[in-house]
Design a protein that fits this description.
424 residues; alpha/beta; Aspartate Aminotransferase, domain 1; 2 domains; 14% strand; globular; binds pyridoxal-5'-phosphate
């Protein structure tokens, strides 16, 4: 098993040289120097319209096409014709719900979660337009932690009874941006497809939010057997642009084009891409896979993700151990309490009880240090936070410390040191 060489990993990120402790990575990661160079090179040398026959345009066209290939590789999709670029994940899902509208019938059911609203709001609005029914798959208390009501997660047994012969689409997250928990996507899809088929379903599709997943683990849309899947490169060491995978049968059989009527897009991702994405950003994304491949001697993405997962566990364990040790002080981890491969180092907690502390005040203590960035709130997983019992003020939300592979064990110690002061 290859280990991550943290020094060279960090060198690839110019922002990390300052020594600032970036611990709000689930909000957005730092950007690779190579990605920035590619963006600037595109703008300085190939900034023309795509699709013409002159030399520079051919070069630009190829560069933008290589952005689709980079995303294809990260999704493990079969074809670049299954890759859509857009300005944000939120916008991509909104576009998807417009394009799928004609294939949603009144009375059909769409299952959503309380996780990040990008995979909920657009489906709610679609259901309202079409007379479809929204069902919520709630995060429920994990049986392993009977003493912590905030140790919640999405559990397959809670999903099963929601599936009927009318289920048309299940929209869920592969990883929670608050709880840090990873979902067994393949199992969920297999189980749901079997249950729905037994119930005589017309058509069942899955839309999986991988925004909080993609910085930590390898996506595999083919193994997962999902129809739509998306993530944002600004959380995966790239620029502010996002990608969606659309499985070919869904592209051709479920979606109506959002593109101009005279464009021949029936089997092309342009169906979901009304207008060009930011070309320089798309090209910039081509810097992400080579960086990941550079992380281990084998040069494979598989080994890179394995090395990242191992390093991240080393960050997670001391932080969770420290927080579990503060139970009497009123600290409650929101989500899975133990490190392990079912979890990434996105750690949220609240401080309750007689000496409760607002999440905002915990974060202020970090802000006063001036060299550590963490954040509080609901992080757009509004429904998840709003449904926590006993209630927390949804806008004050949780304290979230979110680490990625370029964080170090020394940084975790610094974070714990500040928490020691706050929780004294
Ligand atoms: C889990 C999750 N899904 C979706 C999004 C939305 O991504 P975007 O900002 O690209 O719309 C975020 C952003 O924080 C997120 O954390």
């Amino acid at each position: 098993m290859a280990t991550l060489e943290i020094g060279s990993a960090r060198k690839a990120f110019p922002a990390l040289k300052s020594g600032y402790l970036y611990a709000d990575n689930a909000g957005g990661s730092q950007c690779l120097g190579d990605v920035v160079s590619r963006i600037s090179d595109y703008l300085l040398h190939t900034n023309v319209q795509l699709g013409a026959d002159y030399f520079v345009s051919v070069n630009s066209t190829n560069r933008v096409a290589s952005g689709a290939e980079a995303a294809r590789e990260l999704f493990n999709a079969e074809s670049v014709d299954e890759i859509v670029y857009g300005s944000s994940s939120t916008m991509l899902v909104e576009n998807l719900t417009r394009a799928i509208e004609a294939d949603i019938q009144a009375g059909e059911e769409i299952i959503i979660t309380g996780e990040h609203e990008s995979n909920a709001g657009p489906w709610k609005r679609l259901a309202a337009r079409k007379g479809a029914v929204i069902k919520l798959w709630p995060a429920t208390q994990l049986p392993e932690y009977p003493n912590n009501p905030y140790a919640v997660g999405l559990q397959l047994d809670t999903l099963k009874p929601l599936i009927t012969g009318k289920t048309r689409l299940i929209a869920f997250t592969a990883c929670s941006n608050i709880l840090g928990s990873l979902l067994p996507v393949e199992d969920i899809v297999k189980t749901a497809r079997a249950l729905a088929a037994d119930a005589g379903v017309r058509k069942l599709e899955f839309c999986v939010d991988c925004v909080a997943y993609a910085p930590h683990r390898q996506i595999d849309v083919r193994r997962w057997d999902v129809d739509y899947c998306y993530f944002s490169f600004y959380k995966v060491y790239g620029p502010h642009t996002s990608v969606m995978y659309v499985h070919t049968p869904a592209l051709t059989g479920s979606l109506t084009s959002l593109g101009h009527h005279f464009l021949d897009v029936d089997t092309k991702p342009y169906k979901l891409q009304p207008g060009g994405p930011g070309y320089e950003l798309v090209y910039g994304c081509t810097g992400v896979p080579p960086y990941l491949r550079s992380l281990t001697p084998s040069g494979t993405l598989e080994d890179a993700w394995a090395a990242i997962a191992t390093h991240e566990q080393a960050l997670l364990e001391p932080l969770l151990e420290y927080l579990r040790g503060k139970t009497e002080r009123g600290v409650r981890i929101v989500g899975e309490e133990q490190a392990g491969l079912g979890r990434v180092p996105t750690v949220s907690f609240v401080v309750v009880g007689e000496r409760a502390i607002k999440s905002r005040d915990v974060v202020s203590a970090f802000d006063r240090k001036g060299n550590v960035g963490i954040r509080y709130g609901h992080f757009y997983a509004y429904t998840l936070v709003d449904m926590l019992e006993p209630k927390v003020d949804v806008n004050d939300g949780v304290v979230r410390i979110s680490l990625v592979h370029y964080n170090t064990v020394e940084e975790v110690k610094r974070i714990i040191g500040i928490l020691e002061e706050v929780l004294a």
